[in-house]
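User: Fold this one for me? It's Endoribonuclease YbeY.
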Amino acid sequence: MAIHFTPLEVSVSIKQKTRLKVFLKSIFEREGQQLRGLQYVFCSDAYLLEMNQQFLQHDTYTDIITFELSEVEDETMGEIYISIDRVRENAAKFKVSEEQELHRVIFHGALHLCGYKDKSKDDAALMRKKEDECLAEYFGS
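Assistant: Here's what I get for Endoribonuclease YbeY.
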């Protein structure tokens, strides 16, 4: 099982990658998911917009797109694409550090792969609660 972080034509700094990988594995363990592999790809708004249009038929900017690639139930293999442009803009908008916003989105993608949704109001509230729990545990606050 491997977790990879790949910047694609963007600059991104992730501190303590090994610690983050261990924490991500613990999210899947808590949620009863066997993690087989996870690829995080950090990209630009333009790149993610093109993916959003091509794969989801959405013509909007987004901070994250998550793909579940496993064909085996309770086994997760995924690709998560994150727009660093959106992360930076949202960090400023919500008055949080870029590091914290990046981790929120990283955890958000993992939670999607664990089965959490965010389309309805109730689902979005639960997702935000789970993100906040992950951030508090990871950053120790």
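One thing worth pointing out: The chain has a mean pLDDT of 94.
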